[in-house]
Prior knowledge:
It is a single chain. The chain is α+β, with helices and mostly antiparallel strands. It is 32% helix and 26% strand. The protein contains seven helices and eleven strands. Helix 1 (23-30) packs across helix 3 and helix 2 (35-42) packs antiparallel against helix 3 (49-68). The protein is globular, with a radius of gyration of 18 Å.
Amino acid sequence: MNRAALPAVDEVHIRFARLDLELSELARLERFLDHGERARADRLSKAGIRERFVACRGYLRETVAAYLDVLPEDIRFSEGEWGKPCIAEGAGCGALCFNLSHSADLAVLAVAREREVGIDLERIAGTLPFAEIARIFFSERELTEFFSLPPEEQPAAFYRCWTRKEAYLKGCGRGFTLPSDSFDVSLLPGQTPALLAHRTSPDEPACWRLVDIAVPQGYCATLAVAGEYPIIKLVG
């Protein structure tokens, strides 16, 4: 991969990748992985899961390396306090921030400079028990709005809510160490994507922006970004 131009400070790059790769391409990407990643891959025995992991990590390494103008195998990843992946200090990271999500055979990578990002991608499954999952993970406000919708509109609302919550949790680095019912996101049809309220950190809604990302039919995705609304640039 040729060197990639860094995002401008007001941009977020969005990059998609297919994970259903030929064996030769998987073998090429696997050569970029470090010892820990290969060991993790070898523990994944379910058909297709190992291949998707290798494809994701190899793609991530190759893409980040292109931004930093280094070899993919020389990238060193680290984790934040709650496990959010980042580039290790001293690895030429500068101010590059990223977040990766995948579902089924599609991955999406968000890349920014000097601002945290989180992204979530979900493949839409019509057989998912939406109501039962919503009762476990949605806030009281979200549940009220969700169940106010006609049944035929609830699946789309579920995925809007889920990806918006997950993108924010990934962006702030907390994941599900932060209770998912401790904050509210918008989910009604036509409503602007937003973090509406946060009961443990009331200032958070002013610090984060949520953006729906255009994805192939059958998927749903949301970007969470710290600061002001970015210019979204689809790359690759």
